[in-house]
Amino acid sequence: MKNVILGVTGSIAAYKAADIANGLTKKGFSVHTVMTESAQKLIAPVTFQVLTKNKVHTDVFDDSDPSVVQHIALAKTSDLMIVAPATANFLAKAAAGIADDMLTTVLTAFINKPVIVCPAMNTMMYDNPVTQRNIQTLKDLGFTFVEPREALLACGDVGRGALAAVDDIIAAAEEYLK
C-alpha cells in the first residue's frame, strides 16, 4: 500500500481536502494528514481521522510516542506528499525553507520524493509577484503544481485562485503512485 501525506493549510478550500483524503483512501492509499494551525480553524482534524483511519498530525512537538520522531518517520515512510489547499503563506515558507510547523517540518525532511502543490487563494494573492516567484522557485526544485481554477471565490471576486477540482488532484496523485 502506498503512503500519502496530505498537507492541509488555512485556505477556505480546506474543507475540500476531506474529499481528497476520502477519494485517495477509497482508491487504496494510506493517507496521513498533516494540518496547519490555520487549517484546524476551518475544518476539524477528526474529519480526516475518520475518513483515513489514521492519526492526524498537527504538532511537531507531539510526543505521544517518544520512540518516534514523527516528522522524520512520516517523511521516510511516505511515497508522495500533496499540499491541498496550499496558501500563499505555505508557498512562501516552502520556497524559503522555513520549517516552523508540522507541515513545513515534514516537507523539509521529505527529499527526493514527489510533492504536488495545489494553490488556493484570492486572485490578487495568487497573482502577486512574490507568490509567483515562490511558485517558480518550488517548480525549479521539482515540485509539481495542479493549477488553481478560475471561479467565483469565497470573497466574492471572480478569478484564478480556486482549488483545482478534487478529481484532478487525485488523478495527479495516481500518476505518481502507479
Verbal overview:
By secondary structure, the protein is of the alpha/beta class. It has a single domain, classed as 3-Layer(aba) Sandwich (Rossmann fold). The protein is built from 9 helices and 7 strands. The strands form 2 sheets. The chain has a 5-stranded parallel β-sheet with strand order 2-1-3-4-5, with helices on both faces. Strand 1 (3-8), helix 1 and strand 2 form a beta-alpha-beta unit. It is globular, with a radius of gyration of 15 Å.
Top keywords for this entry?
Rossmann fold; 20% strand; 178 residues; alpha/beta; 9 helices; globular
Summarize the structure.
With 178 residues, the chain is of the alpha/beta class.
How does the SSE layout of this entry go?
Blueprint: E1 3-8, H1 14-26, E2 30-35, H2 37-40, H3 45-52, H4 70-77, E3 80-86, H5 88-96, H6 102-109, E4 115-119, H7 123-127, H8 129-140, E5 144-145, E6 149-152, E7 158-162, H9 166-177
Parallel strand pairs: 1-2, 1-3, 3-4, 4-5
Antiparallel strand pairs: 6-7
Helix pairs in contact: 1-3, 1-9, 4-6, 5-8
Count of DSSP H/I helices: 9
* Low-confidence runs: none
Helix and strand pattern: EHEHHHEHHEHHEEEH
CATH topology: Rossmann fold
Radius of gyration over C-alpha positions, nearest whole angstrom: 15 Å
By secondary-structure content and strand pairing, the structural class works out as alpha/beta
Q: Which strand order spans the largest sheet, edge to edge or round the barrel?
A: 2-1-3-4-5
